[in-house]
Every structure is written in structure tokens, then in C-alpha cells.
Amino acid sequence: MKLFLLLVLMSTVLDYGYGSPNCTMPCHKDAKCEIKGGHQGCYCSPGFTGNGIASCYDDNECENATQPCGENANCTNTVGSYYCMCTLGFKSNTGQEKFITNDGTSCVVADIDECSEAGTVACGDHAKCENVDGGYNCSCKEGYQPSTGKLQFKPNDGTSCQAIPRANCELYDVCITENNNRVLAKIRSIKEPLAVLQEFNRSTVGQLSPVDVISYVEALSVSYPFLSTVNYTVSDKEALTNVTINVFVNTMNNFVQKDKITVWEALPTDNKRKSLTKLMHAVEQGALRMAQNFKKTMQLDVIASDLALKVFAFDSHHVKHIHPHVHMGADYIKISPKKKEVPNSNGTVAVVLLRYSNIGSLLSSSKNHSLKDSSEERETVSSSVIAVAISSNPPTLYELEKITFTLKYVKTADKNIKCAFWNYSADTMDGDWSTEGCELTHSNATHTSCKCNHLTHFAVLMSSGGSVLFCSITAGLLHYFLLSAFAWMCIEGIHLYLIVVGVIYNKGFLHKNFYIFGYMSPAVVVGISAALGYKYYGTTEVCWLSTKNNFIWSFIGPACLIILVNLLAFGVIIYKVFRHTAMLKPEVSCYENIRSCARGALALLFLLGATWIFGVLHVVQGSVVTAYLFTIFNAFQGMFIFIFLCVLSRKIQEEYYRLFKNVPCCFGCLR
């Protein structure tokens, strides 16, 4: 027995810096002394890089290789190695929970009886689960209906089961309180953190009302400390944290994705600012608490459509060698700690970096609300919003010196660029932009670089104004002239109708009324619109009508009415022309008659402005197809009218022939 213990002791000594019994060089603890080519040398162990004597740094295989775990798997770096874990809905083909891809393991679809394992929880509230081959379907229970109209649906596809429609809940205190209590009761009934997150995800992935946004943010701000707890064994703790963070980011993305911005904009200013502050605080602190569960050195990236997260976790031995920095989209963030010779204690550090793509427009400066004159300068966020949070245990292990970041403008830079942070109170959850502790280091036409000496949420502010009044006037003039163009298109349609039908009318009287209708009716519409909503003339992006509160319909409404009138006139005109041609020229074939009418009809479509229907379709339901059709047909509207009504007109061709037939240089071309 003593001999066995002696052998174990010798083996341990050899592994700790000595690889060959004849090799006597002292090596780093993560290196081995080996004799190669007759020479002694220290060589770092696999998974480490360095000279082998003074240093052996851990290789981050997850960052240095492209998808080292393959598809449908997440990579987690460890000291000297790494491991892979299949994402939700997949399992390894060998049955191993943790694996390395070079052993032949890959992730395949997990055929699980979801209904027997998760019951109706997987489908959401008031829904039932039915297991099928390779998956399961969800359907609503009796007395409830699917929000999307689909009788069978999958979780997280935006479908939820709703009770019989009742009056919409408005933004009143009583209604908000009732909704908050209902949401909190539902969340508190779930006992596992991951299940709570999954319920948040199912409830917020689809359409939300403004009251729902307030309620779910309130529930999140109360429950985020619970979400970061992991009640599992140490061996499962990091793996579960990895999965939880992925679900957490994708759930938080539901609140801030682009199509939810209009819901936020519908909130009153105070509710919007407080709810956004609560959301940002909960996301930052929730992610930081989850990152603290990692006890080994690792990095983790989670990227959703409009929210990105980067996590750094390392121990005291790696403090000097890890410098947290990250490229997120077109933005760059770097953290610089205070320099220390040697860490004086053991401990761990967690660093969280976040990037929000779209919420900047919602976080306007409070001074903007006190401005009455639209020509005064306003401060707006002209970049994405980033957040940086650090947890150090003990606090003296990793102390911040500065944060440097470079942010890209989301719109063209104007003037007075500032580096700012969202300064808020954790008690009131009310905040505003401040520049204290931040300074601008460099700025160009596309990016701004900043330096700050504290942690929180950061963005680049831009002062804009002065030209706002000019932009509003331009939008008003465009509104008037475009409505005038439509009014004259309507007059053209009525005039053609009267000619074709053969109605006898007083030309002088009618022409006078044509001028009144063509120029005065647009002025009346613009005047009423400006009186009721002058602030919606001109936006931060374009000098045109705002789409807020459906103000754009002050143009679309009259335009649609005129297009409808012209289409009716168009139908009558084509019918009369076809009948008239068939009666006067019976020798002309039906095919020739149809072709002639079709050419005239195509010309009338442009003349009467019917092609603007593509513009209406694009505003109602925008797509690339309607955008191109509208642009092409209306950009060349004048050219099309010239071609169909002038160049292809037989009478005009005869007049050109009569005019130029006696000109020697042109006669040869006309023959």
C-alpha cells in the first residue's frame, strides 16, 4: 500500500511541470518538461499557449474557431479545454450531455413526448397539448380562441389563447393595476426560474398592448432576482445557466424588437420612461446575476434580432490576461480595469455587455418635453444603446478605470454630438441623459468614440433643431401640392367622363368650378390637418407627414377617394369607347378593338393617377414589391403619358408627318 501511494505521489509531481524523468527544467504549472531533438524544453499542455516557463495562457477554443461545436450546439470554454452542449430541442447522438465534437458527437433533433413531460405548460395558458410524431401541436381549450386564428399552433409562434373578446383595457391606473396583479399572480405560480422565463417568452412573443408592456415589465422587475437562481447540483449549474441566459436574452428581445416600438410609443411619456428604465435595469442585473453562476473562465455570446449580450467570466488567476472587449454590430466596447501587480486574493469576476438596437428613439431627453417651439434644439439619441455591468468578488479584485466605446450613428449626424449615460434612480426608476464622467474622444461622419469612468447605459446624443420649422413647412407644401395633383387628376377623370357620355354642360361655369376644386379643396384639407396636428408635419427622418396617430391618412384618405372616383370613371369610359367603336366600325375585328381599347386604358390609368394605388398598398402593408411598383410607375408617369397619348397617337403622328414632310433632312426618316 505504501508503494502504491509513493507511485501516485511521483505521478502527481511529474504531471505538475515535468513530463520526462530525465528532464530537469522547472516549468509552468500548465506545462511539461520534455526532451525533443536532444534538447530540454518546457511545452504548454494542450489547450494552453505560452513559453512554458513563465506563462501558459488558456486558449479560448470557442472564440478562436468558427462553430467548434457545429450546428445546434453552444460552446463553453474551460481552463485548458472546452465543451459543447446541444441547444433546446436537440440532443447528442451519443447520449452525452457535454461533449467535444472531434469525438464524433453531433446534435440531432430530440423526439420527446413533450405533452407527457411538460403537460399544457408548453402550449401556454388555456391551451392543451397533443403529441404527434416528431413533435406536438397545441390547441385552445373550450371557451378560448387562438389570437392568430390558427386552430393548431406551436409555442412561441405568436399564438396565444384568449377569452371571449371584451372591452379593451385602457391606460387607466385601475386597469393597469388589475393587469399587473393578474400577470404577477401567473408568474408567481411557477416555481422554476427557467419555466418562468419560458412563460415570459410565450406571453410576449406575439402582439402586445401598451398595458401588457407595462404589466410584464413590472413582473420582470420584481422577478429577475429569482430568475438568476439555480437550484441544481454543481455539475449541472453552468450548463443550466448557459441555457437560461439564452432563453433570457431571447425573451428580453421580445420587448425591444423593432415591431414593438410602436407599442412603446403609444404609452404616455412618464409610463414609457419608467417602464423602459425598469426593463433596462432588470435585463442588466438579471444577466449579471446569471453570469455570476459561472465559476470557471469562459465567454458567452447570445445574439437576438435587436438585443445582443456578451458575458466574460474569469477567476483571479486570469485578471491580468483577460481584457473584456467586443464588437457588436458596427459598435465596439472595451473595458479597462485599474492596473495591479498581483491579485491579493482569490475570487471571480463577471462582466456583462449589452447592446439595444432600437430603443434609442424612445429615450428622449426630458428637456425636449418642455420645448414649445419646434425650431428650438432638441436632444435625440443617434446611436444604439449599450450597457456595461461588472461583478467582482471581492470588489477590490477588479476595479474599473475607464470604458471606451465607439458607436455608429443610426441616422446622419447633425451637430453638437455628446457622449451620455442614462442616469436613473433605482428607487424611483426615473432617469434622464447625463454627460457627467463621459467625454468625446473622436467623431467623424459615421461614428463617435467616447470614454467614461463609470458603469451604466450609454449612447451618443445629437442636438437637432433650427431646420425643424423648415422641414414642417416643406411637408405642408408637399401635402398641398400632391393633393392638388390628385384633385386635377379627379377633374381630368370627370372631364373625360362628360365628353365620352356626351353630357351638355356650361363650359365657362364648369371650368371656373374646376379651378376652385383643384386649388381650394387641397388647401382646406391641409388647413384642417395643420390646425389639428401641426406637430405631425415633418419627422426626424423625412420632411413628410408622420404615421403617428394615423396622421398620414390626411393624405391617403382624399387620395383613395379620388382614385376610387377615377376608377369608376375609367370603367365607364372604357365600356363606352368599346361599344362606340364596335358600332361605328363593324369591319374592325373584336381583337383589334380590344387591343385599341387596352392601349387607351393603359394610358388612362397613368393619366388618372390610378397607379398611386401601389403607394396606398405600401403604406398599409409595406413590401419591397409595392415599393418598386410605386416608384417605377410614378417616377415615369409623365413619360408614360407622353408615349401613350402623344408618340403612339395616330392623329399626332399624322400631324408630325404633315409638319416635317417638306423638311429635306426629316423626309427620309418619316417615309
From TrEMBL:
Gene Ontology molecular function: calcium ion binding; G protein-coupled receptor activity
Native source organism of the sequence: Alligator sinensis
Protein name in UniProt: Adhesion G protein-coupled receptor L4 isoform X4
Transmembrane portions of the chain: 477-505, 514-532, 552-575, 601-620, 626-648
Cell compartments where the protein resides: Cell membrane
Membrane topology: Multi-pass membrane protein
SUPFAM superfamilies reported in the protein's UniProt record: EGF/Laminin
Keyword Transmembrane tagged: yes
Superkingdom as given in the UniProt entry: Eukaryota
Boundaries of every G-protein coupled receptors family 2 profile domain copy: 471-649
Annotated keywords: Cell membrane, Disulfide bond, EGF-like domain, Membrane, Receptor, Repeat, Signal, Transmembrane, Transmembrane helix
GO BP annotations listed: adenylate cyclase-activating G protein-coupled receptor signaling pathway; cell surface receptor signaling pathway
GAIN-B domain: residues covered: 298-468
Pfam families: 7tm_2, EGF_CA, GAIN
Keyword Cell membrane: yes
One term under GO cellular component: plasma membrane
Domain EGF-like: 58-96, 111-150
Signal peptide residue numbers: 1-19
InterPro entries: AGRL2-4_GAIN_subdom_A, EGF, EGF-like_Ca-bd_dom, EGF-type_Asp/Asn_hydroxyl_site, EGF_Ca-bd_CS, GAIN_B, GPCR_2-like_7TM, GPCR_2_secretin-like
